[in-house]
């Protein structure tokens, strides 16, 4: 496993991290705690030291905390990040909302204390707001509360999860110096963070955590026109209607342009993300030991060529399947 610094924080994180939404047994059908625990342990065995969870991910915080506590005596320094949901329940954050409605200090502290109890941990290495609006820079008591929590040793760093497909909504925050990291969607289809957000993060020493690197499965090569998901699995909505067929056509075009096999698509997609010098870690969802072993094997220093990156740059696809 190779490691990168999370911005200028001084925190070294594995370039392949662990996205723990899918193991929470709330939105993804098929997860089991036994397999999730095995997958987390295997990830740590293979050098993964950054796990991303959230208050809103069902049982995820509890399961992650269980595994981290089980590894406490082994000397493994596992960094855990969690997220505070907005008090007003508005996803994504809309412009014009007062920060006192979304992230008042009392709510931030209460959410963190709940997460600490659920996980059994004494602190989190990174606390993130699960939504963000640049309207909140310099307003409200959220920053004072974050600073207090750092001083109390309950959190190490502060970050935000940037609104889906809107990297421009965190530019003012990055430039303010008030944040240690941002978590953002970045993949072959949505390359927009590389336009302004990544350069700003590099300039101001802000770490970048990349989510949805595989487009919720769309960039694995496994989504085809006939793909369906069961009721209760949130992907049933994400890949509704003719969206699987749209994805299949887009992936077919990438595979043809690169001259690769379809089963090389996931590897290519992850290597694309890691090719950016702004990226600190990428957090694919991994619900099985098999996926852990496949994804962590990509941390081998082999980069895509300039020619491959130039081809992939032509495959931007602006759309929002979350809506």
Structure explained in plain terms:
- Helix content is 35%, strand content 13%.
- It is an alpha/beta fold.
- Strand 8, helix 7 and strand 9 (207-211) form a beta-alpha-beta unit.
- The radius of gyration is 19 Å and the shape is globular.
- The model has no long low-confidence stretch (mean pLDDT 95).
Distance between the termini: 36 Å
Largest sheet: 8 strands, parallel
User: What's the count of strands?
Assistant: 10
Class computed from helices, strands and strand pairing: alpha/beta
* Radius of gyration, CA atoms, in whole angstroms: 19 Å
Mean pLDDT: 95
**SSE series:** EEEHEHEHHEHEHEHEHHHEHH
What portion of residues is helical? 25-40%
> What overall geometry do the principal axes of the alpha carbons give?
globular
Strand order of the largest sheet: 3-4-5-6-7-8-9-10
